[in-house]
Amino acid sequence: MEKNELHDLLNQLHQEIKKTKEVDDKGLALLRDLEADIAALLDRSDETFEPVKSSVFKNMSDTIVHFEVTHPTLTDQVTKISDILSGAGI
Asked: Are 35 and 13 within 8 A, CB to CB?
């Protein structure tokens, strides 16, 4: 996966997070952690994804579980990004 594609995915997620209203404290923390993890991927070369990889997918999973009922669009976006990253071998 090209860094530009990953950057575009991060921007899409960021935009979806900005549209998310009425988020509890736990949800805000999950979204901040997820954005930080994906930003960390942008700062690394292909060879150094491993240290953040498990954190990213754990945060994505936690975010999906937390928001699946209250924010289905956000959940769909996070799921899409997770699938793309998995498919790219990250």
From this structure: yes
Residue 59 CA to residue 43 CA, distance in Å, equals: 18
pLDDT tens-digit readout, 60-75: 899 999 999 988 888 9
Distance CA 36, CA 40 (A): 6
- Give the chain's radius of gyration (CA, Å): 12
CA distance 57 to 3: 18
d(CA 2, CA 23): 32
